[in-house]
Amino acid sequence: MHTVPWVHVVPEQGALPVDLLLPDTGRTYAVRLDGREMRDTDAVFLQFYDRLKLPDYFGWNWNALLDCLRDLNWLRPADRYVLVVEAADEVLADDADTRRLLFRTLLRAGRRWAWTRRSDGLDLSRLVIVMSCAAASVPDLREQLRLCWDETVSS
To answer: In the sheet where 126-133 sits, what is the strand order?
Structure first.
């Protein structure tokens, strides 16, 4: 996906340059989510709740997930947050509309962190999302994310 520098789609066991994931200095907080376990909305929320250790006040809806991902003050402080979604092509595979909601939520949260700057002009923090999937699914997943991004910026 060329338009959104905070989302990367890679084939399983693919690689990204380390500098895209790790800052020169500081701490990185990384979380792995399993797309095979994200078959419906409740399972998506459960993966985020369990793996990211969402706060107890999490509201179990899309707006609440976006709020938690855009804030991150409840999480251990870090200079960069990396979410790795393994088997991303299997996330909500039978529910395209809900999948679009998830992707738009991730894109909006990433956009918030991509533009945060400290007063000295340095990046305050970043949320990087890595979608890992079967190699044959990479082009389709990139296109789905591109379409979701177009919807996000036009709404």
So the answer is: 7-11, 126-133, 80-86, 28-34
Tens digit of pLDDT for each residue in 28-68?
A: 888 999 999 999 999 999 999 999 999 999 999 999 999 99
